[in-house]
Amino acid sequence: MRESPTRTHTLNRCKCLILDGPKWLPYARGMDERLKQLLLLGREHYGKREFEKAEPLLRQVLDHEDRFADVHDMLGVIAHSRSNLVAAEHHFERALAINPTYTEAALNLAVTYNDRGKYEAAREIYRRIKGGPGHSAQGLDSFARGKLANMHAEVGQAYADAGLPREAIAEYEKAVGLCPQFADLRTKLGTLLRETGELVRAREHYEAAVAARPNYIPARIQLGVTLLALGEPDHAQREWQAVADAEPENAQAKMYLRTLQLQRESGLFKASSLPPAG
């Protein structure tokens, strides 16, 4: 029963694959001109997502040379896009055999393993990428960190959808650990924490999201909700007013501000001690 969230995570699996392989030029020495042209055109069509045109060109390259890791990675992505997971797995594995440090192919292979139900193999790939010998997650390039963070977020959302908030929180914490500047991830983590009663920690993540992206409206809205739950209506009003100033037609901000005003009029909260806006 623990596997079903992972299966949910892979419903939109194709978009998780990384479409940009490393440059092939370091391998170009010794290639004849025709092979160079095949590879150049294949990469060009692939970059435009013209897979029908790219595939025969890339396969012709493989017929001549089987030493280009990015060719296998591209063919793997094409196979995956057609739900041919066995072929995709083969190409990604071959890409890594040629170039064991090929991060994009490793991530694509992990996604494919997940899709095929090989969850332990996928986790091993993630561990190798994030914490292999001599490496750390923070030592990854920003692109790889971003992809891993989004993968953790998708798994976290699957756990949340399955009614497992603690597991979801754990995944979002991993995502935020990889990319603390991603305001959307912090906001989702804050909401999960608030829903489990951890208001103070939720507030910390909302505030960090606002600090990272002051104009990220969902973080300000949710920070206001959390501040109100913490008994700080004035500070909640400040966040919602900031949203209303930035987006005068924002329905949520207008509703919350109006509700807060009605609560004050009913005596539930004291009148605001904040200075008038503007």
Which CATH class of the largest domain applies here? Mainly Alpha
- Let me know the CATH homologous superfamily of the largest domain: Tetratricopeptide repeat domain
Main sheet? none
CATH topology term of the largest domain: Serine Threonine Protein Phosphatase 5, Tetratricopeptide repeat
Compute the number of helices.
14
CATH structural architecture of the largest domain: Alpha Horseshoe
Task: Give the % helix.
Answer: 55-70%
Domain unit count: 2
Shape: elongated
Whole-number mean pLDDT: 81
Order of helices and strands: HHHHHHHHHHHHHH
Instruction: State the distance separating the first and last CA atoms.
Output: 55 Å
Parts with pLDDT < 50 across at least 5 consecutive residues: 1-16, 20-30, 271-278
Number of strands: 0
* Strand percent estimate: under 5%
Based on helices, strands and strand pairing, what is the structural class?
Answer: mainly alpha
Explain how this protein is built.
It is built from 14 helices and no strands. The model is unreliable at 1-16, 20-30 and 271-278 (pLDDT under 50). It has 278 residues and is mainly α. Helix 4 packs parallel to helix 6 (103-115), helix 5 packs antiparallel against helix 6 and helix 12 packs antiparallel against helix 13. The radius of gyration is 24 Å and the shape is elongated. The protein folds into 2 domains: 1-179, Serine Threonine Protein Phosphatase 5, Tetratricopeptide repeat (Alpha Horseshoe); 180-278, Tetratricopeptide repeat domain (Serine Threonine Protein Phosphatase 5, Tetratricopeptide repeat).
